[in-house]
Amino acid sequence: MAQIEGQQFPKPALTCTIGCMVLGRLAIAVCMLLGPGVAAADDSTSGDVSARLVYQRDAGAESCADEAALRAEVARRVGFNPFKEDASRVIVCRVDRTVHGLRARIELGNDTDHLEAARELLSKRADCQELSEALLVALSIAINPLVSAARIDPEKEEETAPPESEPAQRGDSEVVPPLAREPASTFVAALPPRPGVEWLVGADGAVAAGLNPGLAYAATIDIGLAGRRYSAEGDLRLVAPSSVVVGRGSLRVWQWAVLLAACARRGVFSACLLGSGGMIYGAAQGFAISEKSQSPEVAAGARGAVEYPLAGRRLRLRAAVDLTAALTRTHFAVSGVDAWVSPPAAAVLALGLAGAFF
User: Fold this and answer.
1) What gap in Å lies between CA 80 and CA 223, rounded to an integer?
2) CATH assignment of 198-357?
3) Which of 7, 145, 289, 344 could be disulfide-bonded to 38 (CB atoms 3.0-4.6 Å)?
4) pLDDT higher for 349 or 81?
5) What is the pLDDT of residue 44?
């Protein structure tokens, strides 16, 4: 067991996965996270309870608060400013994004080279609202368990806060006058809750095989509605012309299609059922008589996609793979001879940007 300022923490790191908690369940989870150290803290409410904070927010976690907002909210919750650059205790906090969601890692020790306890908090949600509440409670309890425990429940915050005329003193720590509880604090204001449904608008560039002769380039405009677990999307795809040699001439083929996708979402991943319908065009070139023809194209298949947030959750980099089977096949003939027949299956690899609106 490693001991830090009267609090005991087991050496092995522990990971806590956050679901859709209410604050009461969150308090229990954080107390379990910190282990028996909460009960074993002796006289932590007197003397120096300050700590030096080292905070790192990596790419992909921009929806989480910055260091200034984090410091201000912890100070508001415990009733004083606990962070001092010359403090003997060190709290290292790093927030990043994994393939499963957002993760916060908290390490405690007497200096950054000898961190003696580590905990991880995981949230499967794309935004940071859920993780931020767990992180704030964990930091508050790590600094001063007995003071923080009374402030976990926001409904009791007004009752437990010291009177304005008698601000709470904590050793040599800087005193911050208690603030009246507000519906949305500075920290929460920086992390707006994710809406239940949001509009998605995007544009993709793609490489397609099986739509035209050889490889073809395509462009797609997307619009849809997305919830936390499901989404529906409509796409307009334009496939650039490509050619195949026929005798002394060539056949030039291009097409457009409207695609409808119904998707299940889990974290940054999506799996979709896909249907498409459009028109395919062909033009013979280099012959005595130029011929043009067109035919409807219908296909069905599946899509797999992954998104990576670039600016909070508003702007996302998206990659997708479409695999479809043709329900109709087109035969282009030049002078009575088949020049090209559309393949029975097609694959499209797309990369683009999507923006979320509501």
Assistant:
1) 48
2) 2.40.160.20
3) 145
4) 349
5) 40
